[in-house]
Amino acid sequence: MAHRPISPGNRPSLRRTAPLASGLAALRANDPAAAEGFFRLVLRQRPDDPDALHGLGKALHDQARLNEAIAVFEQAATQGADAPRARYHLGLLRLLRGDYKAGWQGWEARPSVLNFPKLPIPRWNGDPMPGRRLLLLGEQGYGDVIQFGRFLPDAAQRSGAEVTFGCAPPLLPLLGSFCAKHGIKALTGQVHPTAFDAYAWVGSLPYLLGATSGNATAYLSADPERVAAWRRRRPRQALCVGLCWEGRASHPQDAQRSIAPEVLRPLFDLSDITLIGLQAPPIKRPAPAQSLGMDWGPEIMDFGTAAAMLSALDLLVTVDTAMAHVAGALGLPALVLLPHVPDWRWGLSAETSNWYGSLRLLRQQNPGDWSAPVAAITAALSA
Fold it and tell me: H or E element: which one contains 316?
């Protein structure tokens, strides 16, 4: 759940600025309880302050007090306190609770909240448009594009249009063949929107197509020759487990989802297992010396390479990052470590994912405490 700071255009009084800034700082420091106190202090003086309302909603969300968070964001939306941002956060909360129909509606506020580029052509409304050209665009992180890429064939069928999918270059080796199989042209680089009749962001496809749940069926595949090449490089006898412990540092929830590699030390001591690093550079916190049997991370050039590596291994252990999406989309087994309040797509409590059938979700029992998920992984690998 993203949170925007005070707009430079606002000129709040010093009295308002100090507790508000302290609340935002507490959120960044992963101390939502302290943040809550600062935001409530602002709201006692200014009940309709939009930044304090949204900050309070985020602080409640991070403490797993979801009903209270929803009430705060509903208040913000009713009062017009940056209503699009309130609708967006309500959408995220409803998606987290599994209410996809209502959640997608709020999710549709994200282009304005996250400052997506504005294109000079109409947005696709989900209706058929045979004989015309439809541009579908990747958005946000790599994992988002992989997750929502499953809807590309359905969008092409529904629209009846000539469909082009624009994505970031690292994704093309993984998604290109999938698109070609369904008659969709995939490209990277500069796209000229005026060559198309309408467009949609890939994350809008479940809303436009009326999807009310995820689909756990695998839908991507790795290149067989590249898989064979990586299989020749792995130890033949040992159980080979890929390991990914951190995500993109710029992600708003990275402090909650990434793990210091030392926390995974119980895995390093297991016998008859070869841990293979899949952490692509840059790495904030490298794994301790001699903890990995092999390190393939520096050789990950794109997601086609990542898919081949994963397909050559026996299991993936990862935090919530794009590698989890790759494994799930390929139908490969993975153990995914999740924070106490996870990203919406993983839901609140289930051990399985309704987006990826091959994943097992291991959750923190207490905020910031990875001991239970790590113990579960250690037990699974020791069995």
Answer: strand 315-319
